[in-house]
Amino acid sequence: MATAAAARGTKVVGVNLEKLLASPSAVMSDVLWLYILPVDLPASAGDELLAVLKSAFPKAQIVNALPAHTLCCNRVLLSERLLDRGVPVPETLLTDSPDEARKFVKQHGHAMLREIQAKGSGSGLLLFCDRDGTVAGEARGRRYVVELDDAGGAGGRELSHGVLTVPPPFFVQRMITRVRRHGVLAPAPVLRAFVIDDHIPFWIESYREKVERPSDFILTADSGALRRFVQVVSDEADKLARRVAEVMGFRIGAVDLIRSDSGFVVLDVITDGPARMIDRSFKDLPEFRAAFDLDRYTIESLMEDLAV
């Protein structure tokens, strides 16, 4: 982002939020915009952070509102907000019951077990049933027997001797696939819209050309999925991505869409903020050029606001 700012004759100055919270005496009245990226702060520091930012940067606006970022990072809140506004998401179950979660997996064949609090790419654990009905899971090429535990212990997930024990609550979503010739299942490509205000300057698509194991149905950058820039998308996808940005209330963000039997649904919504950020590794693709530079578009949008 600093390079993009320099090209427009301005600059980005990094601020260490941990140090700012420790010594909140500095006042920087010449700062007009705050663009927050992930920072290692305790959850209890949220309200304090906002107060310190307002004190230290009295004229600055936060580019992505923190409440919108919080909504995007919590998959339950995100799904509720989207559904309340009539935005489609994959079939989803939130339950404390292992039996209900197993029934959901068996009903759909494949399902994603996802952490409620999204971090990183948020790819989750792909669940499926073995021939004997045992729930198994794969992530990043590693397979486990999955024991959905109803004890609700505070220790989180535990892996022992190939058995992954997962405590409730269980947040599971239907894995959407497509059918190739002869009834062979394949991953459905994932479209990601990069939204700057009400503008979508570019899209990328994540896909696989072949499937060798169940976890290959997970299409994220860190799972090894292939990616390419997409020049043209349908009006349906374009309108849905814009609607999501409106509903979630962010300026800069990414919206992941996948086509189901009934049309596009929303898989994920990501904004830059203190807990999570948009993956920019697409800059390493050979096809990358200035037309696909998210940071350049961000700086240009902010500069246009200043010119008004």
Question: Which helices and strands appear, and what pairs or packs with what?
Answer:
Elements: H1 2-7, H2 17-22, E1 33-34, H3 46-56, E2 61-62, H4 66-73, H5 75-84, E3 92-95, H6 98-108, E4 110-113, E5 125-129, E6 135-139, E7 142-148, E8 158-160, E9 163-166, E10 170-174, E11 177-179, E12 185-187, E13 190-196, E14 199-207, E15 226-230, H7 235-248, E16 252-260, E17 263-270, H8 294-307
Parallel strand pairs: 1-2, 7-9
Antiparallel strand pairs: 3-10, 4-5, 4-10, 5-6, 6-7, 8-9, 11-12, 13-14, 13-16, 14-15, 16-17
Summarize the structure.
This protein has 308 residues and is α+β, with helices and mostly antiparallel strands. It has helices at 2-7, 17-22, 46-56, 66-73, 75-84, 98-108, 235-248, 294-307, and strands spanning 33-34, 61-62, 92-95, 110-113, 125-129, 135-139, 142-148, 158-160, 163-166, 170-174, 177-179, 185-187, 190-196, 199-207, 226-230, 252-260, 263-270. The longest helix has 14 residues, at 235-248.
Can you put this structure into words, describing what you see?
The protein is α+β, with helices and mostly antiparallel strands. It folds into three domains: about 1-65, no CATH class; about 70-90 and about 185-305, ATP-grasp fold, B domain (D-amino Acid Aminotransferase, Chain A, domain 1), CATH 3.30.470.20; about 90-175, no CATH class. The chain contains eight helices and 17 strands. The protein has helices spanning about 1-5, 15-20, 45-55, 65-75, 75-85, 100-110, 235-250, 295-305; strands at about 35, 60, 90-95, 110-115, 125-130, 135-140, 140-150, 160, 165, 170-175, 175-180, 185, 190-195, 200-205, 225-230, 250-260, 265-270. The protein has an eight-stranded mixed sheet with strand order 3-10-4-5-6-7-9-8, covered by helices on one side. A five-stranded antiparallel sheet has the order 15-14-13-16-17. A two-stranded parallel sheet has the order 1-2. A hairpin with a 2-residue loop joins strand 16 (about 250-260) and strand 17. The protein is globular and about 65 Å long. The mean pLDDT is about 85.
